[in-house]
Design goal:
Elements: H1 4-36, H2 40-66, H3 77-81, H4 83-93, H5 101-128, H6 137-169, H7 188-212, H8 230-238, H9 241-272, H10 280-305, H11 307-325, H12 332-371, H13 376-404, H14 416-426, H15 428-441, H16 448-464
C-alpha cells in the first residue's frame, strides 16, 4: 500500500497544473479580448486551431512517455524536467508585447502553442502515473481523490490571488484613464506580475511532486521490444470501446465547466456589475471550495453506487442546477441565488472529477488484459486531450457566440441581446454539455463487477511474469 506522503506528493502535481489551467479556462478569453486586444473572432479561432495541434501532441507524448526508461521510472521524471519551462512559458503567455496587431496576433499563437506543449509534456506522464503508483482499483480512486482535492486547492489559491487582484483594482483608474470594473480593465503588466506569482508556485510544486512519489507497478506487456509496436498500440486504442465513451463524456464534462467558468467574468462585469464584495474571482473561489468538499465524497459514493453511476448522478445534478441560473432575477436575491447554485453545482463537479481519472486507469487495465500492453501513457494522454478539447471548444464557443451577439469591450453597456447570450452561457449551454456526458456514460461497460474481474485476471498474469 502506498504511503500518505506519496498520495500527497501525487496531489501536488495537479495542485500546480490546476492553478494555470483554471486561469486559462476562466480568464484567458477576457484577457485576449479586453487586455491583449484580440478581436473575439480571432481569439476564438486561436483557441480552436491550437487544439488541432494538441490532438497530435497528446498521443505523441503518451507514446514517448510509455517508452521512457530512467532510474526514476517512465512517467515521474517529466515532473522534474518540465517544471521550469512550464513556469516561464506560462508567464510569457500573459505578457502583452508592443508592436502591430498582426505581430501580437502571431505572438499569441506562438506562446499558446508553446504553453500547451509543455502542459502536455508534464500532464500526460503525470496522469499516466496513476496506473503505476498502485495496482489496486480502490487505491487508484484514493490517489485520484488526493489529486483532485489538491487540484481544487490549487484552483482555490489561483482564484484567491485573482480575487485579491480584483479587489485591489476595482474602482481605481487604469493607465488609459478608465475606471476599472474588473480584471478586464487592468493594465497588461499587472496581469503579468500576478501570473508570475502563480508560475513560481507551480515550479516548486512540480518538483515536490517528483521528490515525494514512486512508480511501483510494472505493467505486463508482450515481448515486443522496449514498449512494443506504436502502430499496434494505436490500433488497440482505436478499438477500445470504453476509452471512446469515457473520452466523449470527459470532453462534454469539461466543455460544460469551461463555458460556465469562462462566461463568469463577462457575467459579473456586464450583468451583476462592479461589486468589491461579490466579485467574479470570489464567486469562482467559492466554487473551488465546493469542489474540494465534493471530492471527499467521491470514494464513498463510488464504492456504494459504482464509479459510472456516481459520475452520471453528479452530472445530472449539474445539468438541472445549471438551468436554474437562467431564471435568476437581476437583483440582490438573484446574486445570492447564483452563489447558492455555484456551491451546489461545484459539489457535484467535485464528486465527478476524481472518478474520471480513476476510470481512465480502469480502461488501461482493460487494455492490458485485452491486448497484453496497458499503453498507460497513451490512454492517459486522452485525458489531457479531453481536457484541452473541452477547454478549447468551450473557449471557442464562448468567444464566437459573444462576437456573433455583438459583444464589444469598448461599450459601457452591452445590448439586451448580448446580455441574454451571456446568461445562456452560464445556464442552458453548460446544462447541454452535462447532459451529453450522462448520455455517453450510460453505455460505458466497465462496471464495478467487471473491473474486479479484470484486476483478478491481471494479478494472475503479472505473477506469472
Amino acid at each position: 500500500m502506498a504511503s500518505l506522503k506519496e498520495k500527497i506528493g501525487y496531489g501536488f502535481g495537479d495542485f500546480a497544473s490546476s492553478m494555470f489551467w483554471k486561469i486559462f479556462s476562466y480568464y484567458l478569453p477576457i484577457f485576449y479580448s479586453d487586455v491583449f486586444g484580440l478581436r473575439p473572432v480571432h481569439a476564438a479561432t486561436l483557441l480552436l486551431v491550437t487544439k488541432l495541434y494538441d490532438a497530435i501532441s497528446d498521443p505523441v507524448m503518451g507514446i514517448i512517455a510509455d517508452r521512457t526508461r530512467t532510474k526514476w521510472g517512465k512517467y515521474r521524471p517529466y515532473l522534474l524536467w518540465m517544471a521550469i519551462p512550464f513556469a516561464v512559458i506560462g508567464i510569457l503567455s500573459f505578457y502583452v508585447p508592443g508592436g502591430s496587431y498582426a505581430f501580437k496576433h502571431v505572438y499569441a499563437y506562438v506562446m499558446y502553442i508553446l504553453m500547451m506543449t509543455v502542459y502536455t509534456a508534464v500532464n500526460v506522464p503525470y496522469g499516466a502515473m496513476l496506473g503505476v503508483v498502485t495496482d489496486d482499483s480502490r487505491e487508484k480512486s484514493v490517489f485520484s481523490s488526493f489529486r483532485m482535492f489538491f487540484a481544487y486547492i490549487g484552483s482555490f489559491v489561483a482564484m484567491g490571488i485573482f480575487w485579491l487582484f480584483e479587489r485591489s483594482i476595482i474602482g481605481e483608474t487604469n493607465s488609459a484613464g478608465k475606471v476599472m470594473k474588473g480584471v478586464g480593465d487592468a493594465d497588461p503588466m499587472s496581469w503579468t506580475l500576478v501570473v508570475s506569482i502563480v508560475a513560481v508556485l507551480c515550479a516548486i510544486l512540480f518538483i515536490l511532486s517528483f521528490l515525494m512519489t514512486k512508480e511501483h507497478v510494472k505493467p505486463e506487456k508482450k515481448a515486443r521490444g522496449s514498449g512494443g509496436s506504436i502502430l499496434r498500440d494505436l490500433k488497440a486504442l482505436v478499438s477500445n470501446g470504453p476509452w471512446w465513451l469515457l473520452l466523449g463524456a470527459a470532453v462534454s464534462q469539461l466543455l460544460c465547466g469551461s463555458i460556465r467558468g469562462g462566461a463568469a467574468a463577462y457575467y459579473f462585469a456586464n450583468i451583476i456589475g462592479a461589486n468589491i464584495f461579490i466579485t467574479c474571482a470570489l464567486y469562482l473561489t467559492i466554487g473551488e471550495i465546493g469542489q474540494m468538499i465534493g471530492v471527499t465524497f467521491a470514494v464513498g459514493l463510488s464504492e456504494r453506487f459504482g464509479k459510472r453511476n456516481t459520475f452520471m448522478g453528479a452530472m445530472v445534478l449539474v445539468a438541472v442546477l445549471s438551468t436554474c441560473i437562467a431564471f435568476l432575477p437581476a437583483s440582490n436575491a438573484g446574486v445570492y441565488g447564483l452563489l447558492l447554485l455555484q456551491i451546489l453545482i461545484s459539489l457535484a463537479f467535485g464528486i465527478a472529477a476524481p472518478l474520471v481519472w480513476s476510470m481512465y486507469a480502469d480502461v488501461a487495465d482493460y487494455s492490458e488484459l485485452k491486448n497484453g500492453n496497458a499503453s498507460t501513457g497513451l490512454i492517459f494522454s486522452s485525458s489531457s486531450m479531453a481536457q484541452k478539447f473541452g477547454g478549447a471548444i468551450g473557449g471557442f464557443l464562448l468567444l464566437s457566440i459573444m462576437g456573433a451577439a455583438g459583444y464589444d469591450s469598448a461599450l459601457e453597456v452591452q445590448s439586451a441581446g448580448t446580455l441574454t447570450v451571456i446568461k445562456a452561457m452560464m445556464s442552458w449551454i453548460p446544462a447541454i454539455g452535462a447532459a451529453l456526458s450522462v448520455a455517453l456514460l450510460s453505455f460505458y461497460p466497465l462496471t464495478s463487477g467487471r473491473v474486479r474481474e479484470i484486476q483478478q485476471e491481471l494479478k494472475v498474469k503479472r505473477e506469472e511474469k
